[in-house]
Amino acid sequence: MEVLRLQNLQKSFGSVRALKNASFALKEGEVVALLGDNGAGKSTLIKAISGVFPIDRGDIYVRGEKVSIRSTRDAMDLGIETIHQDTSLAPDLSIARNLFLGREPVKLKWLGVFAPLDFAKLRDAASALLKRVGISKKLDADALVSTLSGGERQSIAISRAMQFAAKVIILDEPTNNLGVEETHGVLRFVKEVRDAGHSVLLITHNIHHVFQVADRIIVMRRGEIVAEQTVADTDLLTVESIITGADMSALLKETRAK
Amino acid sequence: MIAAEDEMPVGKRRPGLMRSPQFSSLVILTVLLAVFAIADANFLSPLNISNMMAFLPELGIIALGMTLLLTAGEFDLSVGAVFGLAPVVVMLLVQNGGVDIGAALLAGLLLCIAIGAINGLIVTKIGISSFLVTLSMLLVVRGAALYITQGFPLKSWDQPGFFVTLLAGSFNVGSFRFYTSLWWFIGLSLLAIYVLRYAKLGNWISAIGSNRNAAVARGVPADAVKVWLFILTSVLAGLAGMISAFRISAASPVAGTGYELEVIAMVVVGGTALTGGRGTILGTIVGALMLRAIRNGIVLIGVPGLAYNIFVGLIILAMLILHALLQKNAARG
Hints:
The complex is a heterodimer of chains A (about 260) and B (about 325). Chain A is an alpha/beta fold and about 260 residues long. Chain A has helices at about 40-50, 70-75, 95-100, 120-130, 150-165, 180-195, 205-215, 235-245, 250-255, and strands at about 1-15, 15-25, 30-35, 55-60, 65, 80-85, 170, 200-205, 215-220, 225-230.
């Protein structure tokens, strides 16, 4: 089942064509890694999908239906959740408040933004969620996010995306600045997310991580998608050479000969 | 309020309460009050307490708006000027324009809304720091007040009536004399506590100040919230200015000079983070009481008038150092 399809997405900033005809599809329950050097257009692509800015041309389909994404809210409502390394959580708020930020359970709904938070519901839902994702043993739903480690924060952000039954979870450099132990924790978590039926689009610089969790690899260069391969059909060096665009076939042969 | 404090969502850490900024501020306030009371018996006399309570709401009301604004990560330095301009405009309309007092007050309200909206829109849409925007607005607003009055204070509305009673009526409780502005302060404080701690909007305000991008990414309309907070702060400054003008029956174009810093001092002394994300209304109330008590107390105990800003500054500095140390401790614990 195809969850997300992008068709000929184009985006320019002034005279810079950040995205030229990008097309690909994401299936249910798969992890796709989006690779590329700095300036390849990765972040432009994910920002377009997550509604940070509108695309100039092209179509986006969610579950076969053509959609228009004009705001981050649109993307969220369509089940597309994006998690950035530094911009996902508010450190001064509790885990529970962060989990429901922007979608707070309230009583007396008619009061609009002045409606009181439903604290019992907030805490119960947060605790249940933390338990389900297996991080309840250490974390209290009322703890401030500022007291958490980088890996714990990533896990919280990913859990939040899962809780809203997101169809597509976009992870932007989820293992940046994490220690070895924590990186493995997050990668393990990504697999669990996939096994729970969510599709994951993983943006990363670290090719080793890609080979640990991804099913498919998409490589971008200068605003275009230049390669699309299943992980089983490729290897690290090939992918590296596609990313840099350098001819590494000679090196490749040499390595294989050994 | 104590019971509510225990149920607070981010709480559940009773031991932490003792080290919370509100709590340390409260301890220091108590110590200060005790010192002043011992140093001068008149400090706790009905007359002196009545005096303090007459001044308290005027800055306190502005501090409530400023707390919400600071929690969302923005400043407003134009509040003192708005405090001066609003009553001046209202009185000019009444005295020179022959406008009905009710209509003039409405015009004053609209003016405050406009000033707040301009502050907010420039900060959010053009992306200039609120420090610079509201500093410029301070000059514009203060300059306007001076120009339209030609620098002369106006006689304020002194005929008893609905609006005067509403804003600056007074009543006696035993030998204490209180103004209705105290009710305004209490009412608005309760409202602000509710909004910041218990309402959906409060969650948004804290999140915006803590990590604006995170809030925006969750669909929180950060810019709109900020614009409304600028409007609220401006309106509260105008309201406080009207209360003051009615109480002393004069509208001076230089009223409220320096209030912006005094108000910000109240807010941060109470424990609200200058960097946004962490705000406490209870702390601001304590901070407002503290600054009022300091200003009043050090005059009573005989500190020379010209020296007294030295003490005010030193006490504020000591408070901030204490908060910083507590913060460090909390991070380590």
